[in-house]
């Protein structure tokens, strides 16, 4: 099945609010566990979350690693407004800093981040070369990287089955967004080609569930 790109930034308030209201606790907790496993026991780090959405990942991380400082970027004003509120309500404003910027061109110094992570952003992006080049530029040499996203299923029918299996209890809007995200996603083979083109050979790509791939740095 060919990729059918969806809109890059989640700029609509209704879309951002539906996403923020969904229950991603289990998958987000699993992502955080994998990131902390990769990062080992380091108590302090400067980390970057690309496409933070409502900010749930960085909030979960600093609960477990209060010494980390996390810059949480998103290009969508509507999403960042929700993230700012959630970060403040979690009492994490001193350690999680939301920044509105395009992940394909961040206003940060090269090599600024010990850790770069991201969940569910790559399927939004069509100019993937610009995105991966930015990941490469911003990572400190020897730093840790974990990016997770959906993998495009072989057919629209397979995508529908995934939505029914994992999102039957969600709102019709969220189910439709999930379906469109699956159609817009990249396969692990496509991601491997993108990483090689960006000179990111030190990263592995593996399927981490029946619908996700992970890109991560190998120690
Ligand atoms: C599906 S949400 C995922 C949010 C969050 N990472 C999570 O796991 O809950 C994708 C987010 O990436 C943002 N996004 C997409 N393309 C982006 C870009 N080029 N730069 C910054 N943010 C982007 C969207 O606005 C949206 O908030």
What would you note in describing this structure?
- The chain has one domain: Rossmann fold (3-Layer(aba) Sandwich), CATH 3.40.50.150.
- 42% of the residues lie in helices and 22% in strands.
- Strand 1, helix 3 and strand 2 form a beta-alpha-beta unit.
- The longest helix has 15 residues.
- The protein starts with 12 loop residues before the first helix and ends with a strand.
- The structure holds S-adenosylmethionine.
Briefly characterize the structure.
The chain is an alpha/beta fold and 219 residues long.
Category by helix and strand content: alpha/beta
Helix content: 40-55%
Q: Determine the N-to-C terminus distance.
A: 34 Å
Low-confidence stretches: none
Biggest sheet features? 7 strands, mixed
CATH topology: Rossmann fold
């Amino acid at each position: 099945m060919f990729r059918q790109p969806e809109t890059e930034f989640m700029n609509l308030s209704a879309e951002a609010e539906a996403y923020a209201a969904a229950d991603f606790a289990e998958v987000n907790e699993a992502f955080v566990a994998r990131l902390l496993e990769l990062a080992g026991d380091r108590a302090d780090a400067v980390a970057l979350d690309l496409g933070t959405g409502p900010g749930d990942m960085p909030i979960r991380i600093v609960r477990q690693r209060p010494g980390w400082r996390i810059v949480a970027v998103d290009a969508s004003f509507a999403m960042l407004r929700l993230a700012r509120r959630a970060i403040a309500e979690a009492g994490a404003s001193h350690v999680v800093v939301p920044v509105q910027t395009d992940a394909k061109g961040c206003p940060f110094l090269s090599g600024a981040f010990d850790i770069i992570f991201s969940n569910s952003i790559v399927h939004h992006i069509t100019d993937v070369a610009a995105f991966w080049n930015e990941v490469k530029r911003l990572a400190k040499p020897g730093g840790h990287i974990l990016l997770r996203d959906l993998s495009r299923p072989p057919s629209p029918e397979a995508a529908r089955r995934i939505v029914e299996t994992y999102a039957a209890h969600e709102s019709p809007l969220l189910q439709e967004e999930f379906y469109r995200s699956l159609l817009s996603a990249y396969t692990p083979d496509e991601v491997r080609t993108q990483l090689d083109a960006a000179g990111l050979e030190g990263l592995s790509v593996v399927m981490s569930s029946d619908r996700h791939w992970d890109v991560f740095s190998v120690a």
